[in-house]
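quick one
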Amino acid sequence: MQDRPNRPGGAGATHADFFNIENLKPPEKPPQRSFIPFEAGDEEGGEESLLTCADGRTWKLSLGPYCEGVWRIRLAGAMPADDGTSQGSRHIPSSWAVLPPDDIDAGMPAYEGAAPILDGTEVRSGNCFIGDWKYSESALRFSMRIRTGSRRASGNMRVFGLGEKMGLLERSGRVWEMWNTDEPVQTPTQDPLYVSIPFVLCRMDMQWFGLFVDNPARQYWDTRDCERGKITVDAEDGYLDIYLVRGDGPREIVRRYTALTGLPPLPPLWSLGYHQSRYSYMNQQEVVDTAAQFRANDLPADVIHLDIDYMDGYRVFTWDPERFPEPETMCRELHAMGFRVVTIVDPGVKCDRDYSVYSEGEKKGFFCLLPDGTVYRGSVWPGTASFPDFSRKDVRTWWAEQHVELFSAGVAGIWNDMNEPADFTGNPVYRPDFTVPDELQVQNEGEPGDFRRFHNLYGSAMNAAAREAFEIHRPEERGFIISRAGYAGVQRFAGIWTGDNTSWWEHLAAEIPMILNLGISGIALTGADVGGFQEDASAQLYARWFAFGAFTPYFRNHTEKGTAAHEPWTFGAQTLEIARHYLRLRYALLPYLYTAFYQASSAGEPVVKPLLFEWPDDQRLETMDNQYLFGDAFMVAPVVRPNKIRRDVYLPEGRWYGFWDDTVEEGETDLLAPAPITRLPLWVRGGSIIPHEEPRLHTDEARSSVLLVDIYPDSTGAAEGLLYADDEEGWEYRSGVYCLLRFSYSMNTLTIEMKHRGFHPQWDTLEVHLHRGSHRRPEDGSSRSGSTADPLRLDSDHMELPRPFAGGGAGVSTFSYPFKAGSMRLD
Ligand code: MIG
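structure w/ MIG:
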């Protein structure tokens, strides 16, 4: 039995301890500490400055360029310990997040703005100041401020990013904690959640900055003084490793930050199709039957997920012998229907000496140890469990090898859950310690330490091991990994889904700023449990969420144990029709979406982006988190409230085409858009060219040989778009086996330019649709009076589905050509 005094549910705890209110007090955020400021030392150099503190010890502040547009600011010194001795060191540990400068190349233009300078105790870049360094026994603190000519601060600072957080797009006004936490109660005030990414994108007056504080220990970001031009950061580890990212605007800064922490691999095309999940499909037959229902209902889908009940007693890397007796047969049957299988993997290994993963891990000394050198035993789904030390290369390789149990059965993707890591022995109400003890020792690639430093890295390191699993067992495939936890840079290994949301309208709304801020924080492959995880969705919520989900990067339906069924056919015929409609649209747009992912993996561009990416000077867009861009061409304005038949939409500068009816609007305009239950409010940005194709039932199905291309000219009559194509699964694209086409249209001529010719796409015919648009708003069909059906009824006999790309209606001209590079006149 271990002695865990702060853990009411810990080993040896009694029932009474568990409900002891004292033990369940929320932790103080941030803890009160008394800080002592640093003073400038005698020696000052151009790129280094020595700071002294009251006890005479010196700290070194240094500044240097890191890579294009990025400067690194470091503060290292001695952290005084309680007993007055010096603990910690001047040594800044190697980063898990940041790539070596030589490996960073996102093909970006050189940055020509003012480089920061180190000036005494401060770093200055334009009107941005980083300084005000302070220390206490338990944390380092600094502030970023803006100063303007007047003595009053500008009062005009906005911050975005910080990874996966509740709340709005804009992050000012509270203290945010960086500490990966398994938190299913996602109320607006809840913080933290599963992912920690200490990066902000901020605007100060008309200047944009990125600030990344690469320190995986617990941090607090205090944005309450943003309106007075100040952010304060506390980091509970004895060093600061800060990256100041400059660029021409939000897009370039995010691209630079993403390149700094690693571009994501291109996901295989199948993983951009639809994923069906539930906690859990309880046996092999149920999985196969569910997949068959998709086909019987003519529903496009590519993936089915197996949650923890496929395992034998929740032993990771095993199959339950009764309920999943023949996983190989199951995967084969699923594959024959065009389904791939993704299995959940949890890090906690059941302490059971008759189970090889445990006995081997124990023998090899691969589990995290308590300070006294004994193996730590926590408690998760399998009961008592130990946690692999993923900070070690040899442990990651060993973990990667265990995946053979899944891969040999035919599993195609890995879903890493519980990797905060969650440990039920912590405080179940205030969950920051619902994890393994801070004292656990890790070897951390030769820089040993404890979980204070490694906690936030645990998820990323587990994902690195899963990446290695693909490298070992499926070297020909890109693989697919979706994770719940992660730290900055996790995008190199995995995408992130937003965890345990609830079937609430509020959560549908909350997912938009959450995935936008994840995108700002470098993670392109993101999505939420469609329909909501906890509780039962209503048909109306489900229909709205489904349409929105089709316009998120990772599109998966999932639900909790014990909830009503959430498969698309379980809400009645009309909801099924709506789901099919948006699934078909998703599949039609795969060439477009895949191209957006190419931009993510080659240039660090998020797939879903806030409007401020394109219109950084339009200050109305800074708080806009119910509309967003999906790729470069679509603006999505999901309905996130019940019983709405219209919704308010703001169209920024430029020309806009209603996706369903080609109504042309000139921004900047506010309008009330029709939104019957069948209709996701959707616009195409004038100036776009969108490649798409006939929807298939799954991505292995033979595709039509016709590439469809829709042209939406801007007010000058011009448009452009990209198309990326490759073999959709392997790594050859990294050695140039892909094609990249640029479409441009002006003066009635469409030009296709081959930017890269390393692959032959499968389409041989091009069908071009030129949209001329209509300035007259059609009858919107959303009024309750008149002849049209009730816009919200999901039980009416007749349902009119809106027609994608305006259904090739009156304002659309169609042309057909062989698909090849060259120019063609459209008249
Ligand atoms: O503590 O594996 O977020 O998607 O269904 C619950 C069971 C553990 C949490 C995940 C959820 C998954 C569930 N898991």
